[in-house]
Specification:
- It is a single chain.
- By secondary structure, the chain is mainly α.
- It contains six helices and no strands.
- Helix 5 packs antiparallel against helix 6.
Amino acid sequence: MPGVFSSPEAKQWTYAGTTLLAVGGDEQIRHAIGASHRAVDLYHAGPEDDRSPGDLQAAHLDLATAYLASGEVERASAKLSEVFTAEGCTASITIRLRNLASLLGSEPYRGAQSAVDLRAHIHEVTVRPALAGNPTEPR
């Protein structure tokens, strides 16, 4: 079975963004934003057969997380809206959304109305049953 590096380029960029976020640090977060934007652009421009709704959601979620880590709550909210408007969420996206909701409940976001609103929306989305996911999608 081919590995991740034989995957479409958009998927590789999605994985890069997710990995950079996991590593953490200001420079890695900036690179994660670039990688995730590249993934989204490639998914939108690429052949339909290469599109993975779960990976596209992951790229938007990574952008939201990176923007939040950079203190840009409104930009994070805009990227989350892309995740919220999708047909449904896989189990891994649901878990990641719940982790993001926990982050929104901590300092410096706790009590900020925009963070409270985002947490409520995440809760609404994550109480729905998850879609069966692709076992190779980013977590």
